[in-house]
Specification:
Helix content is 21%, strand content 36%. It has helices at residues 38-42, 81-87, 90-108, 181-193, 254-267, and strands at 5-10, 18-23, 26-29, 36-37, 48-57, 60-67, 77-79, 120-121, 128-130, 135-137, 142-151, 154-159, 171-174, 196-208, 213-224, 236-241. Helix 2 (81-87) runs antiparallel to helix 3. Substrate binds at residues 82, 125, 138, 206-213, 255.
Amino acid sequence: MTQRWTTAVLDIEQAGGWAVVHGPSGFLLDDNGVLFPREWIKRQDLSLLAEHGIGHLDGEPVYLLELKSGAELPGCRWQGLRAFMLEGDHTLYRMLGYAAQIGTWAREHRFCGSCGQAMTQVHLERAMFCQPCDLRSYPRISPSMIVLVTRGDEVLLARSPRFVPGVYSTLAGFAEPGESAEECLIREVREEVQIEVKNIQYLGSQCWPFPHSMMLGFHAEYAGGEIVPQADEIEDAQWFSIHDMPPLPASRSIARYLIDLYLARRLGYSEPVLPV
């Protein structure tokens, strides 16, 4: 049976529910998974930084315990978020991705960015509050453009030095203040490979919690220029034939969706569905 995950602001003063535990090393888990009885896990010797009610899994309330540092509990271990993404349980990954973003926000907003005073958690609102400044801080979302550039039966793919060895992917970058999504896309492609594009088409979006990106996915056609990889950002960039593709990103990523969608349309395959 498919699990259903919905985000919500839950009252941390209420008892019961499940808890996920997040710290600098990722998420705590045991042989039963990442969900722990909330009242039990809170009685353990944990360096609790913050607690947030984050939503419902199959109707059951789920809370996040964000830790200052790691903890060693018998029968438990830590696992990073990327490992959960690769394991294929999309509902679990969505829940943990959201928890990781809330945990990062809680960690980074303990003190006011204006006056430096300690901030307090607003009851039943996803906000931190500085009383002296009357300032509320909300979880941050950073819009990023990701684009597959094509030229007939060829696709433009590139490698960052941070990628898994051998893997090529689409181009991407964060929007600057004042930019439209299309302006960001054109600038990023120009900066990363010195290529010009045209006929930009929006195809979908995906939350990318590393740590708080909202990836807006596009397709664009080649308009001119020769590939010149950006120093220190792009290790290699090439045109690849749709009949001879290199190793590609994970199938659940929006980058892979953009690639697979173009291949399906070009080769007459069934179109993939972007995980949401």
